[in-house]
């Protein structure tokens, strides 16, 4: 058996393993997907919003927090990270208008969201501390669906479903599908205590746990991943309220999308290196999250490598056979060479594709979004066939940047 065939079969096996694992988790827990416990007490909460050049969205973001409907929201601390636009002026005007809004500004630009988040956290003295991005919008009632999970003293943070706000451009619509698949997958991971990120649009933390780990790592490009792993390394649980939703502005150009994904990947690499010593230790962090994170990269890279190899091999053989046929004046195609018997590797590949399609459609079904604009056949086809195959190419770029020491936001 050729080495490439062995690699392909290993790749298929890993892909099947995770697809079947997610399927089994779904079957066993499908009745609890929307479960949100009622809070046993009226937890006090403050929300910190980091802001840098968010003049176009920051007012709507602040109002979405104030209008979310949580009655024990004490403060909304908006941290301007020395913006170059009119963000701080907008925040100050809202501070005068709303008693709960507190406008602060960092002494100097921190260069990342983690720095402004940590700065804002200094002004928080409530039981819970939440964070929302300056270009995200919290749905009314979302916070109420999150806080009940803190009835369990071992819960350190709770996240929500993050959906795409802007769906006008094709690239935005494809991301809208991707976000729904990610959020559905994240909820399934909760059932095996393996949520690996508390995304920026809305995450709530137990303040004592947040203080114990000394907040966000300001050297990490994905502080929301790092803090989640840090909490789990300390024995805290991370939960997700699937019905609680926040909307975020997704990249609207290919350049911005590539920049965002490079940052995500580099931050993920930073986190994997930082917690690499915890392989097979520290509960599910070392036994599942780290292997899952690394294997997802391996699957993506090997999948791309196998595909490129097969394409180049076919093209090379066609070129050689065509050149030979022309020189010897023989037929390019003979009837006896035509076979309708499917290649077993192609067969496995098709099964994996259709299982992935089923999981994508299942994710879209459970992410009950009234605005399903763009979830049509062209968008789904592009997502399944092209979009997921571009990501490994971005990952290669991210590895290169990571090795070169790129750490810019």
Protein model, in words:
The chain has a domain at 34-249: Spore Coat Polysaccharide Biosynthesis Protein SpsA, Chain A (Alpha-Beta Complex). The relative contact order is 0.13. The protein has 409 residues and is of the alpha/beta class. It is built from 12 helices and 8 strands. The longest helix is centred in the last third of the chain and has 45 residues, at 284-328. Helices cover 53% and strands 13% of the residues.
Round the mean pLDDT to the nearest integer and report it.
89
Put simply, the count of helices is 12
Reading the helices and strands in chain order gives HEHEHEHEEHEHEHHEHHHH
CATH topology of the domain at 34-249: Spore Coat Polysaccharide Biosynthesis Protein SpsA, Chain A
Helix content: 40-55%
Largest sheet: 8 strands, mixed
Spell out the CATH superfamily of the domain at 34-249: Spore Coat Polysaccharide Biosynthesis Protein SpsA, Chain A
CATH architecture identity of the domain at 34-249: Alpha-Beta Complex
Q: What strand order characterises the main sheet? A: 3-2-1-4-7-6-8-5
- Quickly name the level 1 CATH class of the domain at 34-249: Alpha Beta
Compute the gyration radius: what is it?
Answer: 24 Å
Task: Set out the fold topology.
Blueprint: H1 3-29, E1 45-51, H2 58-66, E2 73-80, H3 87-97, E3 101-105, H4 113-121, E4 128-131, E5 136-138, H5 142-147, E6 155-164, H6 170-190, E7 203-206, H7 207-212, H8 223-233, E8 237-248, H9 254-274, H10 284-328, H11 344-366, H12 377-403
Parallel strand pairs: 1-2, 1-4, 2-3, 6-8
Antiparallel strand pairs: 4-7, 5-8, 6-7
Helix pairs in contact: 1-10, 1-11, 6-11, 6-12, 9-12, 10-12
């Amino acid at each position: 058996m050729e080495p490439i065939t062995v690699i392909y079969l290993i790749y298929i096996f890993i892909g099947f393993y995770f697809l079947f694992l997610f399927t089994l988790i779904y079957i066993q827990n499908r009745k609890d997907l929307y479960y949100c416990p009622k809070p046993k007490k009226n937890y006090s909460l403050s929300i910190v919003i980091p802001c840098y050049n968010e003049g176009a969205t920051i007012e709507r973001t602040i109002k979405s927090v104030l209008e979310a409907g949580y009655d024990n929201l004490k403060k909304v601390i908006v941290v301007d990270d020395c913006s170059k636009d009119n963000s701080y002026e907008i925040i100050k005007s809202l501070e005068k208008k709303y008693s709960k809004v507190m406008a602060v500004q960092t002494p100097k630009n921190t260069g990342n969201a983690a720095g402004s988040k940590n700065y804002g956290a200094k002004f928080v003295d409530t039981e819970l501390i939440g964070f929302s991005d300056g270009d995200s919008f919290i749905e009314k009632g979302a916070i109420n669906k999150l806080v009940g999970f803190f009835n369990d003293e071992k819960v350190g943070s709770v996240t929500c479903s993050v959906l795409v706000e802007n769906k006008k451009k094709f690239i935005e619509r494809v991301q809208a599908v991707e976000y729904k698949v990610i959020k559905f997958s994240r909820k399934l991971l909760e059932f095996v205590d393996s949520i690996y990120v508390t995304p920026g649009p809305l995450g709530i933390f137990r303040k004592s746990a947040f203080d114990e780990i000394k907040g966000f790592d300001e050297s990490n490009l994905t502080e929301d991943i790092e803090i989640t792993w840090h909490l789990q390394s300390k024995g805290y649980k991370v939960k997700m309220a699937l019905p609680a939703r926040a909307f975020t502005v997704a990249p609207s150009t290919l350049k911005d999308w590539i920049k965002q994904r490079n940052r995500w990947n580099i931050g993920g690499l930073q986190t994997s290196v930082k917690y690499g010593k915890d392989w097979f230790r520290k509960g599910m962090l070392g036994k599942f999250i780290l292997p899952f994170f690394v294997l997802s990269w391996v699957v993506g890279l090997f999948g791309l490598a196998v595909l490129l190899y097969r394409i180049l091999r076919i093209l090379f053989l066609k070129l050689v056979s065509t050149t030979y046929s022309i020189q010897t004046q023989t037929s390019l195609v003979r009837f006896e060479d035509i076979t309708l018997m499917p290649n077993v590797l192609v067969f496995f590949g098709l099964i994996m594709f259709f299982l992935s399609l089923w999981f994508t459609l299942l994710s879209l079904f459970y992410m009950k979004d009234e605005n399903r604009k763009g979830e049509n056949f062209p968008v789904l086809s592009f997502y399944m066939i092209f979009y997921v195959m571009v990501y490994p190419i971005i990952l290669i770029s991210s590895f290169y940047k990571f090795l070169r020491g790129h750490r810019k936001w």
